[in-house]
Amino acid sequence: MTEEIVSADMVARDNDARAATLKRDYEALGEQLDRRGIAIDAIRDKVAAFHVAIPSWGVGTGGTRFARFPGAGEPRDIFDKIEDCAVIQQLTRATPNVSLHIPWDKADANRLKQAASRFGLGFDAMNSNTFADAKDQELSYKFGSLSHADAGTRNQAIEHNLECIEIGRTIGSKALTVWIGDGSNFPGQVNFARAFERYLDSMRAIYAGLPEDWKLFSEHKMYEPAFYSTVVQDWGTNYIIARELGPKAYCLVDLGHHAPNVNIEMIVSRLIQFRKLGGFHFNDSKYGDDDLDAGSIDPYRLFLVFNELVDAELNQVEGFEPAHMLDQSHNVTDPIESLMLSAVEVQRAYASALLVDRKALEGFQEANDALMATQTLKVAFRTDVDPILAMARLQSGGAIDPVAAYRASGYRAKVASERPAVAAGSGGIV
Ligand SMILES: [Mn+2]
């Protein structure tokens, strides 16, 4: 029996107060969609089956280079984090998996498994960390890890990734995400080609340690922590890596890791077409890699990304099975609230993309009718799919209004009294 953190009676009471209005809104939208030849229940069922993973570090308060302002009741360790993730899942029913970060979440693997299964949670991709030095680590990653000039440092980083795979095997993960801080801050500091060759060699060693049914994800990032060059700077390099390594290697697209105005949905399309899209780190950004909440700045871009994903889904592209995860920094909000609403935003983009009249769109594309083609997308984007999302949550046992139910539950005040305040420190977010 899955344990529930927030009182189920309390959630039911909150839902009861909203259910009649939701039913009316859902029926009205159903009628409207029916006129467009869309069965609302089918969309609801697809939304209910759509999941996005929560990164363990996301439930802690983030920070910037300037400061970090800790929130009340911050999780003290991975077991507190799992409880926070369980609240998000209980109320949204959209986030059944947690993505661990090693060494931050290092703990006895069996205890981890037990803690998660208590709340019916599973584990998503493992995340290795060779962009910071762990406590008591022999060699420093100050000047890189997998691409480091020193073979000993590279081996240490390879070993760390192999250890992450081992932990992941025990807890039932099926993927490893490798994100590195390797790069340079000054022109001339590193030789681009030699650094990349060393990185590829290291990745080959990690790839060789991958279980048969696992995937290896590499994530590109244009800048930060290195500010002049990064070793995996863009999707082209990322694609080269995945191709060089082999069929189990895929590219991750983090929405914040691109230059401003880059056409991310087109990158997504290219990676799908060449069978190398591994999945996403969802967030949003205004100026750079701001790690803001998914859909908070440019919901249309998120919709356009999902337009590509739904296109691939409907075309049954071979091997198309992208992993979805949120990767954001919550500096001024309650992380649980931000993550709940972000999961809903990702579902919203998915639901809206499912409403696109693809036959009409193709017709307009063939006829070079640019105006009607783009309007076809807009019609889907402008449709308020809120009742579909709420109904999917309600029928899956979640909350019609997750934030209202969460606030009514008093969860944050409760954990604030149990968990001592964490000292304000540095950002510690990637
Ligand atoms: Mn990321």
Protein model, in words:
The chain contains 15 helices and twelve strands. It has one domain (8-418): Divalent-metal-dependent TIM barrel enzymes (TIM Barrel, Alpha-Beta Barrel). It is α/β, with parallel strands linked by helices. The strands form three sheets. Strands 3-5-6-8-10-11-12 form a seven-stranded parallel β-sheet. The protein has a three-stranded parallel β-sheet with strand order 1-2-4, with helices on one face. Helix 9 (299-314) links the parallel strand 11 (277-282) and strand 12 (323-326). Residues 424-430 have low confidence and may be disordered. The chain binds manganese (II) ion.
Question: Can you lay out the helices and strands and say which pair or pack?
Answer:
Layout lengths: L7 H28 L4 H10 L4 E2 L22 H15 L4 E3 L1 E2 L6 H10 L3 E2 L2 E3 L22 H21 L3 E4 L4 E2 L7 H17 L6 E5 L9 E2 L4 H11 L3 E6 L9 H10 L3 E6 L16 H16 L8 E4 L8 H20 L3 H9 L3 H13 L3 H10 L6 H8 L1 H8 L12
Parallel strand pairs: 1-2, 2-4, 3-5, 5-6, 6-8, 8-10, 10-11, 11-12
Antiparallel strand pairs: 7-9
Bound molecules: manganese (II) ion (MN).
